[in-house]
Amino acid sequence: MSVEFSFQYVNQIKQIGKPAWSSLMGQSNPFTRYDFLHSLEVSGCVGGASGWQPMHVKVTHAGQSVAVMPLYLKTHSYGEYVFDWAWAQAYARHQLDYYPKLVSAIPFTPVCGKRIAIAPSVQVGEQTLLLQQLSHYLDGLLDKLSASGWHNLFHDSEAQQKFRKASHLTRLGTQFHWHNRGYSDFNDFVATMSSRKRKNILKERRQLDDKGLSFRFVKGEDVTESDLLHFVACYQATYDKRSGHSGYLNHAFFSQLLASMADAILLLIVEQQTSHGVIPIAAALYFTSATTLYGRYWGSLVEMDGLHFETCYYQGIDYAITHGVQIFDAGAQGEHKVLRGFEPVATYSAHEIKHPGFRVAIEDFTQQERQQINHYMAQLRKVLPYKKGD
Question: How does pLDDT run across 216-248, given as a tens digit for each residue?
């Protein structure tokens, strides 16, 4: 007799509740924590007119919660970082609607991790059945909502294998992460590089030596309202200059984060000695887990060569070495990171497209893209700055 699971979506994560969500998803990844997703909702960064309508899935069996999945109904493709704009444009050329679509992702956060959390009590064979039934449930939602497809973004490699085995379309991507190989300090790290690459990095850091700068990491529980206001001003100013808007996230979101999950937050404040005294000029918000340092948001009120690299990369590497952190994920994209010691790593997503003709075309695209990404990562590994044999 096959196991029947029950599926339900909710429009607010609080309808699932922190105990049920946390017992399944855990606390190890800051971005899949209940508090992170709840902060997005109560601050208005998702929901309303944001184009991210929560539809989180709760799975039950025999009256018990056995799985959860973050899910959103999307009316655009902003804030996802697995780019499907070309797919939407192709739909438009054929007078078809690509939006809405269903997306299982962490909004505005291209960080890999668990997207479907299943209780340990569900046996391996039952997990396969649960995922099959989940796919059928999502297909039914597509019909109900007149949506074009569903997309699972930045899941782990184990989930990727399951999606491929289930014949869903899968995409390969890449990011650049720094790996701690037991370095004693920053000089020990750059000593593993070729002479020219090592000198370039040290020169890049030295150009800030005479700027009167100081860098101060503040633990989440010690961040003051003044610190937070400074960071938000930097974040919004930099976003506005780069994108013409003040960013996807607001003061209420960051304030709620500090109130609910300060244990996973580090704020880096950059200050400068001037004739008027010491003033804050830049900031970066980091998140931590047992194994990983995540560099997420940054901003500056001044233009200064090398400040971005120092604040967002080198200070993070220094921190990881000092505190024995194994991996530093400094954010999406940026192949310039490779020459600074960040290595290409694979990222994964899975997709199900309702329209049969477009599904065939997109499958062909993903297969060609996979070959290109594999070649791209292989080429980048050849230009890593490390000495041969390291």
Answer: 999 999 999 999 999 999 999 999 988 888 899
Q: Rounded distance, CA 384 to CA 313, Å?
A: 16
Multiple choice CATH, 6-174+345-382, 3.40.630.30, 3.30.750.24, 3.40.390.10, 2.30.42.10: 3.40.630.30
- Residue 154 near residue 105 (C-beta atoms within 8 A): yes
User: Does residue 101 sit in helix, strand or coil?
Assistant: strand
Euclidean distance between CA atoms 245 and 237, whole angstroms = 9
Q: What distance in Å separates the CA atoms of residue 85 and residue 107, rounded to the nearest whole number?
A: 17
pTM: 0.96
Q: Calculate helix-pair angle for 356-382, 85-93, nearest 10 degrees.
A: 150
Domain boundaries 181-325, CATH class: alpha beta
Neighbour tally for 172: CB within 10 Å: 19
Mean pLDDT of the chain: 96
Spell out the domain ranges in the chain: 6-174+345-382, 181-325
Q: Give the chain's end-to-end CA distance (angstroms, integer).
A: 54
The whole-angstrom separation of Cα 78 and Cα 184 is: 40
Neighbours of 238 (CB within 10 A): 20
- Give yes or no for a contact between 284 and 311, defined as CB atoms under 8 angstroms apart: yes
Q: Please give the C-alpha separations between residue 291 and each of 33, 61, 261, 309, in angstroms, as whole numbers.
A: 16, 33, 17, 22
Asked whether the beta carbons of 385 and 215 are under 8 A apart, the reply is no
How many residues in the chain? 390
Q: Is residue 384 within a helix (H) or strand (E), and if so which, with residue range?
A: none
| Domain 6-174+345-382 identical in fold to domain 181-325 | yes
Let me know if 78 is exposed, middle or buried by CB neighbors in 10 A (0-12, 13-18, 19+): middle
Rg for the chain, CA atoms, rounded: 22
The mean per-residue pLDDT over the stretch 73-78 comes to 98
